[in-house]
Amino acid sequence: QVQLVESGGGLVQPGGSLRISCVASGFNVENYALGWFRQAPGNEREGVACISSIISSSSGDTIYADSTQGRFTISRGSAKNTVYLQMNSLRPEDTSVYYCAAEPGYCTGFNEWDYWGQGTQVTVSG
After folding, report:
1. Mean pLDDT within 28-50
2. Which 8-state DSSP code applies to residue 15?
3. In the structure, what pLDDT confidence band is assigned to residue 5 with cuts at 50, 70 and 90?
4. 61: how many CB neighbours lie within 10 A of its CB?
5. What is the DSSP string of 37-101?
6. CA separation for the pair 45, 50 (Å, rounded)
7. Facing residues of 36 across strands?
8. Residue 9, by phi and psi: left (phi above 0), alpha (psi -120 to 50) or beta?
C-alpha cells in the first residue's frame, strides 16, 4: 500500500531551525515529484515546497511558497524514497501540521497531488 510517513516535528523557539523528513513507499517514488504542505488551525492547507522527479526532464527543480522561500529548503536524501524540509528562521506563523505528498513527474504547482502522509506537528513558540 502507498505510504508517506513524516517525522521530525516538534517544538522550536522563534528564529530556530528544524528538519523534518518523509519516507515514501508502495509506489515508484523516482517517478514522482515530492512536496511539503502545511495546515494550521482555522486555515486551509497550503503548499510549501516541491522537488521534481529525479527521472524527469526537470530533475531536481524546486518551487517554494513566497512565504517560505529563502528560509526553507527541500531536498531528496541519499535514500531515494526520502525527502527533507530544512526550516530556518522559524516564525510563530510557521506553526502547522506539515504533510508530505507526491504527484507524477515534475513540479507545476500545488494543485494536483495523488498521495498524502499523515502529518507531523511543528510548533514555533517561546
Report:
1. 95
2. T
3. very high
4. 14
5. EEE-TTS--EEEEEE--TTSTTTT-EEE-TTTBTTEEEEE-SSTTEEEEEE-S--GGG-EEEEEE
6. 15
7. 49, 100
8. beta
Which residues are registered as beta bridge partners of 21?
7, 84
30, 80 in Cβ contact below 8 A? yes
- Give the C-alpha separation, 112 to 31, whole Å: 15
Cell reading at 10: 516538534
* Average per-residue pLDDT for the chain: 94
> Could you give phi then psi for residue 10, rounded to 5 degrees?
165, -165
CA–CA distance, 8 with 100 (Å, rounded to integer): 12
Please report the pLDDT score of residue 74 as a whole number. 96
Query: How confident is residue 13, by pLDDT bands cut at 50, 70 and 90?
Result: very high
